[in-house]
Amino acid sequence: MSEQERVDGTGGTSGAVGAGGEDPGRRVRAALEAVLMVADEPVRVQALARATGEAPDEVDLLLRELAGEYAEQGRGFELREVGGGWRVYSRAEHADVVEAFLLDGQTAKLTQAALETLAIVAYRQPVSRARVSAVRGVSVDGVMRTLLTRGLVCEAGVEATSGATLYRTTEEFLQRMGLDGLEDLPPLAPFLPDELTVEDLEPREVLAEPVREPVREPVPAAPGVGDDEVPGRGASTQEPRPGLEHHQEDS
Questions:
Q1: In this predicted structure, what is the pLDDT of residue 160?
Q2: In the CATH scheme, what is the code of domain 112-208?
Q3: Could you give the residue range(s) of every CATH 1.10.10.10 domain in the chain?
Q4: N or C: which terminus of the chain carries fewer CB neighbours within 10 A?
């Protein structure tokens, strides 16, 4: 189809008018814009042609027309052909405004609840949401979503015993805190309330499989000693520490 045919309406998609008075060319252009607005990477002409049901040559011509219109109208965005495809980008002259908008949400201060949750993850990682909620005494679902969005925590696998998703801090967290590694975290004991101990929050290793202890020969019980107190049976003779019962996870 020649350019003259497109202009005078004697042929092609752009010049024809449907039975209902609708310009098919305008419909295709709108469809291309809709697809490009949701694309997060350049889209090839062939893919756009399949999506719209138009010939690749026709789609390529429409894309170039759209790019020219955006530039002529001085829009805040532009349509570029990059990497073998087409994608909508914000215009370079508005980069400072776009950057300020994107950084505004990232520089907003974390709430006290978010800081407390982040501290628990940092000192107890990898840790599940349920464990964090148990330490804080409240649900942390919303706060964890905020920390995930900020890039301060990320998923770190699944706990073998419960199937719960585990979370850990990220490199972004270390950079924001000015730390080289988790070993540089400050001692926590001086800042803990009376009912908590360092053991409640310090990092622990989550094992993929339970540890199998070596088989031991039975040890005869001493007179007056119950089975639960026989050494080697895995039971502890220590009494629970006061004030910690409600912080222990259910087995």
A1: 87
A2: 1.10.10.10
A3: 3-93, 112-208
A4: C
Classified as helix, coil or strand, 201 is coil
Contacts of 172-176 spanning 24+ positions with Cβ under 8 A = 173/118, 173/122, 176/152
pTM comes to: 0.40
pLDDT per residue as tens digits for the range 129-188: 999 998 888 889 889 988 998 889 999 988 888 888 999 999 989 988 888 888 888 886
Measuring CA to CA, which residue among 45, 14, 13, 17 is closest to residue 32? 45
Question: How confident is the model over 114-141, as a mean pLDDT?
Answer: 90
For residues 96 and 54, is the Cβ–Cβ distance under 8 A?
Answer: no
Q: How many helices (H) and strands (E) does the chain have?
A: 9, 5
- The answer to whether domain 3-93 has CATH 1.10.10.10 is yes
Q: For residues 229 and 221, what is the distance between their CA atoms, to the nearest angstrom?
A: 8
Say how far apart CA 30 and CA 183 lie, in whole Å. Answer: 55
State the Cα–Cα distance between residues 69 and 63, nearest whole angstrom: 10
Residues 6+ apart with CB under 8 A from 209: 160
